[in-house]
Queue: 4 jobs
Job 1
Amino acid sequence: MAPLTQDWNDFWNYFQQGLPHINILLGIIIALVGGMIVGSLPSLFVVALLAVVVHVAVEAIIPAMQHHAPLVLPTFNNGFAHYAISLYIAYFVVIGAIFLLRVILAGARPTRLET
């Protein structure tokens, strides 16, 4: 049981170190759109991955649009991988929660009474 606890703590520390670098407003907007797009549980994995791609692309485009600077894509190194993995986990959890809430609320709709 101790190795499992150690692995969980390592994962949690890794995830928490990547969280401060996430643009929260952009993340909320993308997660809300992603939560509305998800149609099934397997598609959640794909939508979360697409959300990461969109997030990284928009973060590269925003400075180029605001400051008329050249478009600079992120450098693919360990730091970026850490950021992308943390971003994927965050999107997976938030989009999954939105999807679950949407499914629960769709099942709780009142039935139509016929007269």
Job 2
Amino acid sequence: MPNGFLWYYGPVFSDQAMKLLRKARSGIYPRRTYVDPWGPDFDLECSLIHSRFVNFTKRLPRPLATRALDMRTYLGKSAQPRRSKPITDCIPVIAVLPYVLRGCFPVELERLRTLAYGLTLGGLYAMAEDKLIDSQASPALSHTLLAPSLYCEFLRTLHGIFPPGSAFWTYHDRFFREYQMAELAHGNEIGRTGRTHPRRYCNIVRAKSAPMKLAVCGMGILSGREEHISQILKSFDHWIVGHQLHDDIVDWREDYCARRQSLIGAKIGRLVRAGRNACPLSELTRAVHSSDVIESMLEESARWFARAEKSAVGIDCGDWIRFVRDFASVTSATVRDLVTLKAAILLGH
């Protein structure tokens, strides 16, 4: 499997390193994206999912259809304009899991496509709902009505491959209940008050991502290899925590300024209170880079990826393990880059 991330590295104080340094001063990091489990074949699969989604939007009232194709519905403020992405760029990230898991759970391609399309709808639904909850997007009526439309299409699609008595729906009820409880707990349990408990944060991350686990359960049921579901779910839980910790690092300044909760945000909050109560963003960025906050969080992310790989040992899931290793390799390289950036900042470059 080729390296599936958009990332780059440079020698110490090279032009590339200095570009990264300028980004680091502003708190901006490149965002990695896993894109390529099958090469050109996966591009074709994603284009089929996109075509099917566009056909679905044509059945919606026009205001809802427009909203469904606008990435601000799913990414909120982070979709404009610096990170603007069309739906076609986001589908690979949402739909990738069934294709990565096919080596462990061999499923006939047409049913795999149906599952991937259904899970894409479910992912977009959860993202749209999350942005409404976080008030990152305008609560326009079309936005409010779109979320249930996406969820209804998600159910309709998956009922085509999982009959009402299938164990899939037991998992569905369990995972969406976990997701709902996590959304309720998130604002109450985690804040930038310095009292964030790492274990509680990781539990909420796992629960908020619970609907994504339907990819594992769906593939296991369709392939008739349900005995491997629990082991891959355990590996997934470790992977998603590592992934979220790294994502929090990428977004730390944006999230901190917007007062969105995260584990690194709590650490930065304690760092600020240890100095003075308020400082300009440039000084805050320098203080963060002069500390070990980011490095320690990256190292913690890497530990979770290692646990994810270890949990999958013993079953035939090479593509999944390579998927996890790709994320881990990016995190490890980021640690090395930050040592260089930190030294440059402290030396006044």
Job 3
Amino acid sequence: MLPRPVSIFDSSFPTSSIGAPPPMGKGSGQVYLVTTSMKVGSKNVGPALLLVKETNHNDSWGPPGGQTDATDHSVMFAALREFNEEVGADWTMLANSIGKMTLLRLKNQPSKNEGWVILVETDAQTAENALFGQDRSNWNLSKRMKTKLSQETGGYAFVALSEIVNADPNSGAFKIGPNAVKLRYPKFTRDAAQLLQKLF
């Protein structure tokens, strides 16, 4: 059973208690897959977030997610389903491979549009290998950014949370390594990254 849906603001975080997700309803959800660290060369750049390149939206970048459909019990389930569809990998691969993982709601209350966090207490490389079921340690950044994951996504990258927080608030411009890119939803993704930084 999934962990009880909690907020990063809950005094009980992290929690081992369980309970039901919010009820079914139309909306949209995003999944913020966050690792506790990421190495770039020999340097640890701190916590990192998985972003995907959205080919249907001018190759802008953002967390996996989308709208609920008739099969979704809740926005949370829609977010996790969309994650699997857009990333082309099952998030439970992480749950089965990584020793410590927490699923939690980004904000305090259930709503029609929710961000959900999968926090894995490991580095980005280990999480990537577990998620895709193969060792991608030798892949360079360019290869990741050009790897088609699904019909909707044409690349992926783990990005330091600090890079997203410092993205341009209007255009969403930021960098993935030396590459100049843009966030699809600058305000929402930057706000989420700021909240996520409070976990560390």
Job 4
Amino acid sequence: MKKTLVSILAAMSLLMQGGCAAVLIGTGAVAGYSLSKDSIEGFDDHSFDAVWNQAITTMRQRGKVTSQDKGNGKFEGEVNGVTIKGQITRVTPKTVKIKISGRKALLPKVDVAQDIFLSITETLAKKD
């Protein structure tokens, strides 16, 4: 019952922010995400290190990493000609906020950013 209530509240909260939202219910975890013109952001219930490592692995599998600053949770790279910027922020010891943005020649490419974000979160969920 509590998980259902949390899911509904998370979806409503994201919808009120004016973006698109989806609630994903995985292995006992609830995650939501919101989209803007060039970025996607959401929360994940894994440690910072687990998310960081998966983000870097995903970027290397899909393209290349051009810079990374684990201390500040920032990374940049390129996937299919799209410049990807990522920010991972600790919220709690087991929860992080992930923001991925994508641009190509100054034009937003949220589809590529969304693909990277979902690859990171879905791979982590499969490891549980």
